Amino acid sequence: MKRYILFSAAALLGLAACNQNVLSDGPAVPGTGECLLTARFDLPSTKVASQTLTNEKAIQNVQIFVFRAGEGGDAGVLEIAASAGFDQALGVTTGTYSGITVKCSTGQREVWAVVNDSRDHTSGADAVQTKAEFLALTHELQDASPTKLLMIGRSHPESQDPAITLTEGAVQVSIPVHRLGASVVLESVKNDFSSPAYQKAEIFRLEAAYLLNVPGRINFGETSEPSALPEEMWYARLAAETANPRAAILFDNLSQELLNYGQTHTVKHTFYAYPNNCSPSEDAVFSPRATVLVLEASIKYASGWVKYYYPVTLNGGLAANKQYHVNLTVHRPGSTDPNKPVTFNDLTPTITVSDWDGGDTYNPEI
Questions:
Q1: Quick check: 65 pLDDT over 70?
Q2: How far apart are CA 341 and CA 78, in angstroms?
Q3: pTM for the complete prediction?
Q4: What is the residue extent of each domain of the chain?
């Protein structure tokens, strides 16, 4: 479900004509008029209460790109670009930010917006000159954080043709931007061991939760295939990433919390990944494969604590701007290898999928 509200299912980027805070002047094309656009970033309330964290709405920096369209040989050529927040992070999480104004010529144009990129592509060595160069830009997941999630949008998102007509004077355009990443939330873990031998107090403890096999790069055009990424661009290949910056978005230490029979751990653990449509694999040698959420836990025996893994393969893949809510119920000791699945009799995972801030849900039993 698509939303035209900033940081609800998509973020609303309102462009309204204004003559203050001018940051960049584009060269006017002879024989055409002049249009002035001001970017306004609004942060209304979340549609579904408590579903999106405040930090996931944060705007740290913004970039605006205006490309020519439908004008013969110069279609796709950059008309003007501007940015804000790279010298000092904007840190906007509520209210309105209206800090970019660009001046450009009138005519058929495509307007693109980027929020929270790690690099400024409007000037300097990383600047782009064409739409093709813009769509080919890439972003690495390790440059993101819970307060700096990459978002992109364009004019006319509901149409195959993003071109709009900019006329002389006041022009207003709305651009919904969406997160390029997916969010995986471990919402709860319940101790429901079937055997009385495992229902004793203080013999089951939670060690960690994390994602495995995560694509680490995506292009702005969202056309890159995870299966085509070089191996080094896959994060947490077969083993957890425990060092920052990757651990900050892929790994949570559960601090050896004891979870007695009948109890439920309800602290939410949120992880971030780029889209992944690869099939599951149990091969010991890494190859592109489905992303897996792993609960790592230990059971106490007479000889000491033994570590087990409860991997949940996110079948069907991860899609951009989607949240995957996972609730686990543990019935038996898990696997001794995080890449080997446990049977459904050992673990009952319930997974719901929704737009990041929307209300569409699915409840498969797996």
A1: yes
A2: 49
A3: 0.84
A4: 11-179, 182-355
